[in-house]
Specification:
The complex is a heterodimer of chains A (about 600) and B (about 625). By secondary structure, chain A is α/β, with parallel strands linked by helices. In chain A, about 65% of the residues lie in helices and about 10% in strands. Chain A is elongated and about 120 Å long. Chain B has 20 helices and ten strands. Chain B is elongated. The chains are: A alpha/beta (about 600), B alpha/beta (about 625).
């Protein structure tokens, strides 16, 4: 059998670089600079100033050597160098603002885009999160936006300055000696072609290198996360061999990219050296030939100015790759921003008035993918204050029912009414304010226990929180924590035990005092004493509100007013525990299994 | 030009190893590649000399033209005294000089390529390729203690980023330092040969440049560090909001989340202004300082040239070019210092791993019994993680083929008992005997091959179903794999998968139900037909509705093996030959299910609470 450790993960949202709408993207990124128009305009002025100032400085060096120094006039030398120092000071002073403004503008733009993305994320319905990996969203907000930031802070303005330098230095040289300038101009296409050829090759090599590197990291991640299995099954040597192969493979690509640029950069340099050689020969000839007799100073001038003509080609070449990364980053961020929510509240949706909590499913069908229904023709009524237990195998549709009640998704066909209001005609906010949810995994946010209980009602007083905990009879458990209510729960509640997390999420739900309660019971077994506390608290929580419970505990199911047994998206049995046991069919069978295995 | 500065390293918490020790070790690593390294250094020195020669020749060209055209101009200084024959016409001399400059440049281009290629070969082709598998290999052999104590992202980074930091010491720190020193010496000697006093005057400003860049680096490092923290917090905020999205939506808390995110976002933006101001001040300052050296050169050097003491070409023009190069090299020092910090930090983390002792070792002459019956004896076993005891005086014996169920509340030490068997940890006191032989006397690998393990949450790898089952024995035939799958009641559902045994599982085994994953894990455990089976709460992460599927798999898998299982459900407990109840690391009750149900105690009350209606 072929030895294989891992398969490369699906690559992240490929963007075809050739299809990028460069100007559209630039316009859109810079539309975020509008609120900072003054800074932006000053920046443009500074950039133009710098484009002209750098060639002027280079020209001044040549001019001082050719003028005052050649003629040996001491006062003129001092005056000229003094002038040069002053001009240089002015240029650097401008440079200070050019850097600072660009950095601040870039940060401001990224800041605003980040806020926009986050707000958009909050608006997207759950279905978006079902198909989008967390890592992808983080990638948009971090590496992609960082690339855009570099684009705004550096690439755009540096590129403008470089192009400006080339034009103005070129004009100065043309004015100085057109023959030498033409020779220089002849080299430009060579450089340009070299640039094009090599940057393409390097980009391709780098892309392959990154792919191979993502295989290395994916393998590593699996090895680390699966270390217990690896050691338990004595796989170290096999893994080490395949890892060595992967590393060697990656090294081949890195070497390829490295060596290509090792050819490219000296070739570029050779071009400007070729010009210096030509400068000496042609410039020398033109100075030496008595018929032409150009001043020797021309050679000196060109020596300094030509740098400002060749350097930008190199710089622009290296900026080109960064610019592409920035563009791809921007494209990805904007794609996320442009993701249309699959549904939003109807424009004429009304706020739900204070409800009793009667929930009715009428011939409702639903599928996360409409062509694959997971709920079929569901009809039932949950009377105010009653508990509905949902029972069935994994994939039978229990979770879909509670997702629909919570308006995380909309029904495909049929209706769902709350106190007689069609769920599609009411605003989500007004519904959610009268509802509370307890999830299977009792997710907690990083912060204190108090913050977490107050999640839905940040304005609730500490007294109210304590009151709630007392009602659940779990204040002693909270008090036993290192800092009581003020204990930090850690990332995703890691500092608390499973049982403690569940109690906190019960308290969170109870404090919200909802009319409708949705509860997805935890499956994981916890120790018996905590378990009994949780059962008792649960009874308090369910009291006198309409509750939907995906139940895994027999005691919970037994207390329900209505049990719905689901199978493949249909309700196959309904009734109370005793009724269904007497019926002696599916539920009774499940019950038998349950009591045997538990 | 911008100075690209990577955020600084957080202060190392590990003060036991001094920087100097790490450097010495890095130097030792470099020494093992000394031939390649010195080759690159030689290339670099040659390059520098060629560059100076090219510049000098250009200067000579300018001076020669002046000397020919302008009467009274000083005679050019021919390099190394190589003057053209007097018979040559001036234009011929110029062509010769031009050709000379170009040939020098061409040789330089070739050498630059060779230098870079050998550096690449040294770093990416040798150092990284040697080091990564070494670290990886070591990682795989470290005990679970290490993995318990370190976040997985940090461990992964040691093999990826931190290994690059070691590499960085070679090319970014050591090589760059040598280049800076050599160029400094070469540039200064060249300028000294032109004029001593001019050199001193021009170099007067350079210490300021150096001072500026080091002060700057020191000033922004803490700010960058803070920035990194704030950005991490912002990303953390984002991650939490997305993970908690069902909750946020269900309670309608979007607006509050947006407000909190904006606050964190504002903090990130505002904190950067200090960095921006410094960054914006730094670049022009260093730029101006290097221009000041040019001003000195033009003023003082111009005066000297006007007096005819130095030539314009080899004197002024070449010095100007050299001063620019020198300024670049000096601001390089700050970058080197920064790389040094980074590489030391990374290297420490790599060395940490390489030095981490392999706790679990096989003895020099391990016991290799032909066949293992499976009699296991815990002989007064104590165990801790360095703090409070996790297990205290555990003592019981299991006969071959028996099934032991371990019961107890969370944190009572059940998983610890399980992980002592394959020697993931060793007892701190007492011993565990297998067929009368201490576990420590076995070869570790051999021992583990004789124990089949199923973990609480089965980790499956992203490869095919067959490869996952054959994980412990990649050479297993399809027949053997299918047999294992049948034992684990997994053959039927595997056959229904799109490509059967060749179906590729997604990352971490996504695409299968919890029950199916556990059955694959059981198949994986019984593949090598081990005499001992260890099942650490295999139904913990499984929907109680599908639990019976696994129960059947466990039942067949157990046949003929000594089995240890952490269990909660009465059905499993009834089936066990021996039930061991743990509480706070001690055995509080021991006996058969029936024995324990007849006695007051944890066992009875736990089963009653769990299932009051289904009392046996």
């Amino acid at each position: 059998m072929k030895r294989r450790l891992t398969i490369a993960p699906a690559s992240d949202e490929e963007i075809d670089q050739s299809s990028l709408d460069v100007f559209g993207l630039l316009r859109r990124v810079f539309s975020y600079a509008k609120p900072h128009a003054r800074k932006r305009n000053q920046l443009v002025a500074l950039v133009i100033f710098r484009s002209a100032a750098l060639p002027a400085l280079a020209w001044a060096i040549g001019a001082i050597i050719n003028g005052p120094i050649q003629s040996g006039n001491l006062t003129a030398i001092l005056l000229a160098t003094g002038g040069f120092a002053a001009l240089a000071a002015l240029v650097q002073f401008g440079f200070y603002f050019r850097i600072r403004h660009a950095l601040e503008l870039g940060e401001a733009v990224i800041h605003d885009i980040r806020n926009a993305v986050f707000e958009h994320l909050m608006r997207l319905p759950m279905s978006f999160y079902d198909r989008t990996k967390l890592g992808r969203i983080i990638g948009r907000m971090t590496s992609d936006l960082d690339a855009v930031r570099v684009g705004v802070q550096e690439i755009v303005f540096v590129s403008i300055v470089q192009v400006g330098n080339m034009i103005i230095a070129g004009a100065l040289m043309l004015w100085c000696d057109w023959v030498l300038f033409s020779i220089m101009l002849a080299i430009v296409p060579v450089i340009w072609l070299l640039n094009r050829y090599f940057t393409r090759r390097i980009t391709e090599d780098q892309r392959l290198g990154q792919e191979s590197f993502s295989r290395v990291t994916a393998t590593l991640a699996e090895s680390v996360n699966g270390i217990r299995v690896t050691q338990g099954f004595v796989r170290q040597d096999v893994n080490a061999d395949s890892f060595r192969e992967l590393v060697a493979d990656h090294s081949r690509y890195s070497l390829g990219a490295g060596n290509t640029s090792a050819i490219f950069l000296p070739l570029l340099e050779l071009n400007s050296q070729f010009f210096i050689a030509m400068l000496l020969v042609v410039g020398g000839y033109r100075a030496l030939d008595p018929d032409i007799a150009r001043p020797v100073g021309d050679i000196v001038q060109f020596f300094f100015l030509s740098n400002l003509f060749f350097e930008p080609i190199k710089t622009l070449g290296s900026q080109y790759n960064n610019a592409l990364t920035a563009m791809v980053g921007a494209e990805r961020v904007f794609r996320l921003l442009d993701t249309k929510p699959e549904w939003t509240d109807a424009p004429d949706a009304k706020a739900l008035p204070k409800i009793q909590g009667r929930v009715e499913f009428r011939n409702l069908s639903f599928g996360y993918d409409p062509s694959k229904p997971v709920l079929k023709a569901i009809s039932f009524v949950a009377e105010p204050g009653r508990t509905v237990a949902l029972v069935g195998h994994t994939g039978s549709g229990k979770t879909s029912i509670i997702n629909l009640v919570a308006k995380m998704y909309l029904p495909t066909t049929g209706t769902l009414e709350i106190d007689g209001h069609d769920i599609t005609r009411i605003t989500s906010d007004s519904l959610h304010r009268q509802m509370a949810v307890v999830h299977q995994h009792s997710f907690l946010f990083d912060g204190t226990v108090l913050d977490n209980i107050r999640f839905a009602r940040p304005d609730a007083s500490v007294q109210m929180v304590i009151e709630t905990a007392r009602q659940l009879d779990c204040m002693d458990i909270i008090d036993a924590l290192p800092k009581g209510l003020y204990t930090q729960v850690g990332e995703a509640g890691a500092n608390l035990s499973t049982g403690q997390r569940q109690l906190v999420s019960f308290a969170r739900a109870l404090l919200a005092d909802p009319r409708i309660l949705i509860l997805d019971e935890a499956t994981s077994a916890i120790d018996a004493l905590t378990e009994s506390r949780i059962q008792r608290s649960l009874a308090t929580l369910l009291q006198s509100r309409t509750s939907f419970v995906v139940a895994h505990r027999l005691s919970t199911i037994r207390q329900a007013d209505l049990i719905l047994v689901l199978d493949h998206g249909r309700i196959v049995e309904r009734g109370t525990h005793t009724e269904l046991l007497t019926l002696g069919e599916i539920y009774a069978g499940l019950h038998r299994h349950f009591t045997q295995s538990s | 030009m911008m100075v690209v500065m990577s955020p600084a390293a957080p202060p190392s918490r590990d003060n036991e190893v001094s920087d100097w020790q790490v450097i010495r070790r890095l130097l030792a690593i470099t020494w093992s590649y000394r031939v390649e390294f010195l080759q690159v250094v030689a290339f670099q020195i040659a390059l520098l000399l060629l560059m100076l020669a090219g510049l000098g020749l250009t200067g000579v060209g300018i001076d020669f033209v002046r000397f020919t055209v302008q009467p009274g101009a000083p005679e050019p200084h021919w390099l190394f005294g190589i003057a053209p024959p007097d018979a040559w016409k001036p234009t011929q001399v110029m062509v010769a000089i031009g050709v000379g400059v170009f040939v020098l440049a061409a040789v330089r281009a070739l050498l630059t390529y060779l230098a870079q290629a050998s550096l690449n070969m040294l770093t990416q082709g040798r150092i990284v390729v040697d080091l990564r598998p070494r670290v990886y290999d070591k990682l795989q052999r470290l005990s679970f203690r290490f993995f318990d104590a370190n976040a997985s992202s940090s461990i992964i980074n040691r093999v990826t980023g931190d290994v690059q930091s070691v590499r960085m010491f070679v090319d970014q720190v050591l090589m760059q330092t040598i280049i800076v020193i050599v160029s400094f010496v070469a540039y200064v000697s060249f300028m000294l040969s032109v004029n001593v006093r001019l050199t001193v005057a021009c170099l007067a400003v350079t210490p300021l440049i150096w001072l500026c860049s080091t002060t700057f680096a020191r000033a922004v490092h803490p700010a960058y560090r803070r920035n990194r923290e704030l950005v991490d917090q912002l990303v953390q905020r984002l991650v939490e909001s997305i993970r908690g999205m069902p909750l946020i939506k269900a309670y309608g808390c979007e607006a509050g989340e947006i407000r909190r995110f904006q606050q964190a976002n504002d903090i990130v933006r505002d904190q950067q202004h200090g960095i921006f101001r410094r960054l914006a001040a730094y670049n022009p300052t260093v730029g101006y300082l290097s221009q000041l050296t040019l001003v000195v050169l033009l003023g003082y050097g111009g005066w000297l040239a006007a007096k005819g003491e130095i030539p314009i070409g080899t004197g002024l023009v070449v010095s100007a070019a050299i001063l620019q190069q020198l300024a670049g090299q000096i601001s390089n020092i700050a970058t080197i210092a920064n790389s040094m910090h980074q590489s030391l930090r990374g290297a420490r983390r790599v060395f940490d791993i390489l030095d981490e002792p392999v706790e679990i070792q096989s003895p020099a002459a391990p016991a290799r019994p032909e066949k293992i019956a499976g009699r296991v004896c815990f002989d007064h076993v104590w165990f801790d993680h360095g703090e409070d005891p996790v297990l205290q005086d555990i003592h019981f014996t299991v006969e071959p083929g028996q099934c032991v169920a371990i019961v107890g509340p969370t944190g009572s030490g059940k998983s610890s008992v399980m992980s002592l068997l394959p020697r993931f940890y060793d007892p701190t006191d007492g011993r565990i005997l297998l067929d009368g032989i201490n576990l420590r006397d076995f070869d570790v690998d051999d021992l583990r091959r004789r124990i089949g393990i199923v973990f609480q949450e089965s980790f499956l790898f992203s490869s095919t179903v067959a490869e996952n089952i054959a994980f412990g024995h990649p050479g297993a035939s399809r027949e053997v794999i299918e047999k294992a799958a049948r034992i684990a009641a997994a053959h039927d559902f595997i056959s229904e998968l799109p490509k059967g045994y060749d179906t590729v599982l997604g990352e971490a085994g996504i695409g299968l139900s919890g029950g199916q994953k556990q059955r694959l894990a059981i198949a994986r455990a019984v593949l090598l037909d081990p005499p001992i089976l260890v099942l650490d709460d295999p139904t913990a992460a499984v929907d109680p509705g599908t639990e019976h599927e696994i129960a059947a798999a466990i039942e067949t898998a157990m046949a003929g093996r000594t089995t240890f299982i952490v269990a909660h459900r009465p059905a499993m407990l009834r089936r066990a030959d021996l039930v061991v109840v743990l509480d706070h690391g001690r055995v509080t009750q021991i006996g058969t299910h029936a024995d324990l149900m007849a006695r007051e105690g944890y066992y009875l009350s736990a089963l009653e609470i769990q299932n009051p209606g289904a009392m046996p």
